[in-house]
Specification:
It is a single chain. Helix content is about 35%, strand content about 15%. An eight-stranded mixed β-sheet has the order 2-5-6-1-7-10-8-9, sandwiched between helices. It has a two-stranded antiparallel ribbon with strand order 3-4. Strand 8, helix 4 and strand 9 form a beta-alpha-beta unit. It is globular and about 60 Å long.
Length: about 350
């Protein structure tokens, strides 16, 4: 039995989880939860026992000095609570950690125990995968669920994926079997520039999460970081004609596939988001603090270069396999980054 002391009664709580590793291409998902924790000053109230779930030869502990005293930080998964006020108060339970090395069923059961005790009404799991998507276009984010009723009511895809899965898929299925509504949001990261960080993918996940749970998220410097990231990749890709040609082919394929949507539902979604933010006064920092998942691509290209460090040189396209974590195994079809695909990974 999980007993929680010192945790206040929560208002319409939603659990938001992300795990470093195989399902976290470009560190986009874990960075999104870290951003929520930082912006809303989350308070850690629990940590899972690292001894139960992690192989320390795979995820090694770190040693650090605290006032001359040596201490050890063990790899684990931590839970924190953020209190979100405003006109529609809603609290979040943030789960952030590393994909466990073992005992996945026990790991999921322990997280579900916390969800039950805290009265969590919805679990949202964030993930990121490598896909054939150009860095110059809005990041595709797929919302999938195993619950047919939830798919209808929340306008999500009912997952049809079959194949290898990670802790994101296991936790979603555990929620489904336990009767807890669960959704996975997947951002597609260009496989030719997969090195972390990828603030543009992180921003896209937060925008989609914002729409899903009807909660305005302060975005801080993410919009600026996203523009700086794209400008850096633009410059590096322009220096390599082979990469530039490959990016152009991805752009043409993407634009052709999304032409019908661009004139309909996508525009409506962006207009609704704009109206919500305008009526509510927008997040701290004003309109510039928000760059939408499906927003104006040209705005990225008009900005002046940033003083921030440029990302690593894009990898040359090759015939190698593509994976959510870049490990060389195959989890998804090559078009898994397209939010129109029904085969989003789990």
């Amino acid at each position: 039995m999980i007993e929680l002391e010192g945790v206040p009664e929560l208002v319409d709580p939603v659990m938001v989880a992300a795990f470093e590793g195989w399902n976290d291409a470009g560190d986009a998902a874990s960075a999104a939860v870290a951003h929520l924790d930082k912006e809303w000053k989350g308070e850690v109230f629990a940590a899972l026992d690292a001894e139960d779930y992690y192989d320390f030869q795979v995820n090694r502990p770190t040693v650090w000095l605290d006032g001359g005293v040596r201490k050890i930080t063990w790899p684990t998964t931590r839970l924190s609570v953020v209190r979100v006020g405003g006109d529609k108060p809603r609290d979040l339970v943030l789960v952030r950690g590393i994909e466990p090395s073992m005992r996945w069923r026990s790991f999921c059961n322990e997280l579900l125990g916390f969800a039950h005790e805290l009265g969590v009404e919805l679990v949202v799991i964030l993930g990121a995968l490598l896909g054939d998507t150009p860095h110059t276009r809005p990041v595709p984010v797929s919302g999938v669920t195993s619950d047919a009723d939830l798919a209808r009511t929340m306008d999500l895809e009912e997952t049809k994926y079959e194949g290898p899965t990670g802790i994101v898929g296991i936790l979603q299925e555990a929620c489904t079997h336990a009767g807890v509504p669960a959704v996975s949001l997947w951002a597609a990261v260009p496989h030719y520039v997969s090195q972390p960080p990828n603030p543009k993918a992180t921003l896209a996940l937060l925008n989609r999460l914002e729409d899903l749970i009807d909660l305005r998220i302060p975005l801080g410097e993410l919009a600026e970081d996203s523009r700086a990231w794209q400008l850096g990749v633009d410059q590096l890709a322009a220096e390599d004609s082979e990469v530039a040609e490959y990016v152009q082919s991805l752009e043409e394929a993407r634009d052709t596939a999304e032409l019908p949507e661009a004139s309909g539902e996508a525009i409506a979604r962006e207009f609704e988001r704009y109206l919500r933010r305008r009526d509510g006064g927008g997040p701290p920092g004003g309109p510039a603090g928000h760059a939408t998942e499906g927003g104006d691509t040209a705005s990225y290209l008009r900005d002046t270069p940033s003083e921030r460090t440029r990302p690593p040189r894009p990898q040359r396209p090759d015939a190698g396999t593509e994976t959510p974590g870049g490990t060389g195994d195959t989890d998804t079809p090559s078009d898994a980054g397209d939010d129109s695909s029904e085969d989003s990974p789990e």
